[in-house]
Each structure stands twice: as C-alpha cells, then as structure tokens.
C-alpha cells in the first residue's frame, strides 16, 4: 500500500509539472499570472511547515502503514483522478494561468457541469489525503489548510475574471454549480 501512495504522489507531481510548466497553449488573453505564484508559495509554506517538526519525521519513518494511511492513499488517488479528469475535460483550454481561449467559451460539460473548479477540487482532496496519510495533527493541518486557502484564493480570483468576461452566462452557471465538491 505504501507503494500505491508514492505512485499516486509521483503521478500527481508529474501531471502538475507537465500541465503547469511544460504544456504551452495558444491563448488569446491571459487574465492573471500572479495568482499562480501565490498558490505555489502557499502550498510550499504548507509543505515546509508540515514536514518541519522533528517528531513528524520520526513518526513518519517508524509508523506502520495503517488504516488512516490506506484511506489517505485512496483519498490522494481520488483527488488525482478528479484533477486529471478536469484537465482532460478542458483539453486544450486547460492552462496554469487564468486565461481566455481564442473562441471565448465557458466550458460547462463533464465535471464542469456540476463543479466550477473540479481541478482545484482534485488538488484540495489530494492534499487532504496527504494529511490523512501523515496522521500528525499539526502537519496534517498545515498540508491541508494552506493549499485549501491557495485554491480558494485562486478560485475567487478566477470567478471575478470569468464574471467580467462572460457576464450573465457565468452568473447563471454559478447558480447551477458549486465552487468545489
């Protein structure tokens, strides 16, 4: 089970590295770039604070991979799958930046039919899964709360831009959907 955990985490990192760093798209309008930096900084703060306590590292190395870790592993995997499906659902429209594509279309199919930010939802779920795997209360809080705040900030900023770009169409979409699960 420990291998499944690490396989899930590595797949998550590779997927995010590819879509956020390597993949380039043709976008007609980049609405925001700085929020990506804010998200990365908040996530790094959460990770550093989570792994900083000496007793966390001692507990992590010696603890058996028990029920919480198994449940956490499946939670991480579930989050990674949701994020992957969201990325695939958007296809060429997916970007690490807040952008509007050349055809300026508000995607409302697949996961986006019910959730406005399924990609961020997948990330949040994965970080909560890490917190469950860690099973160290301060570390679990840091690894869950800081990324949640990062993606909440990003979603709020993105929604302001979407409202500005799509007006009433976005307002109607917002009424029918949830921000996250």
From TrEMBL:
Report a single Gene Ontology molecular function. protein C-terminal S-isoprenylcysteine carboxyl O-methyltransferase activity
Membrane-traversing stretches: 6-23, 35-53, 65-86
Alphabetical list of Gene3D superfamilies matching this protein: 1.20.120.1630
Name a Pfam family for this protein.
Answer: ICMT
Q: Which PANTHER family did the record assign?
A: PROTEIN-S ISOPRENYLCYSTEINE O-METHYLTRANSFERASE, PROTEIN-S-ISOPRENYLCYSTEINE O-METHYLTRANSFERASE
This protein is called Protein-S-isoprenylcysteine O-methyltransferase Ste14
The way this protein sits in the membrane is described as: Multi-pass membrane protein
Q: What is its main location?
A: membrane
Q: Which PROSITE patterns match?
A: S5A_REDUCTASE (PS50244)
Keywords, alphabetical: Membrane, Methyltransferase, Transferase, Transmembrane, Transmembrane helix
Q: Name one GO biological process term.
A: methylation
Is Isomerase tagged as a keyword? Answer: no
Localization, per the record, is: Membrane
**So which domain of life are we looking at?**
Bacteria
């Amino acid at each position: 089970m420990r291998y499944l955990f690490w396989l899930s985490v590595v797949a998550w990192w590779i997927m995010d590295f590819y879509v956020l760093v390597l993949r380039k798209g043709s976008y007609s309008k980049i609405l925001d770039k700085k929020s990506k930096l804010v998200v990365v900084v908040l996530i790094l703060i959460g990770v550093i604070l989570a792994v900083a306590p000496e007793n966390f590292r001692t507990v992590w190395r010696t603890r058996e991979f028990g029920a919480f870790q198994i449940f956490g592993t499946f939670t991480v995997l579930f989050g990674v799958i949701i994020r992957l499906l969201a990325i695939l659902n958007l296809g060429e429209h997916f970007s690490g930046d807040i952008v509007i594509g050349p055809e300026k279309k508000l995607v409302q199919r697949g996961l986006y039919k019910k959730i406005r930010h399924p990609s961020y939802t997948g990330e949040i779920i994965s970080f909560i899964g890490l917190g469950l795997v860690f099973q160290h209360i301060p570390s679990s809080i840091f690894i869950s709360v800081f990324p949640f705040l990062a993606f909440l900030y990003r979603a709020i900023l993105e929604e302001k831009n979407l409202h500005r770009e799509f007006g009433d169409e976005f307002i109607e979409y917002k009424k029918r959907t949830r921000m996250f699960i």
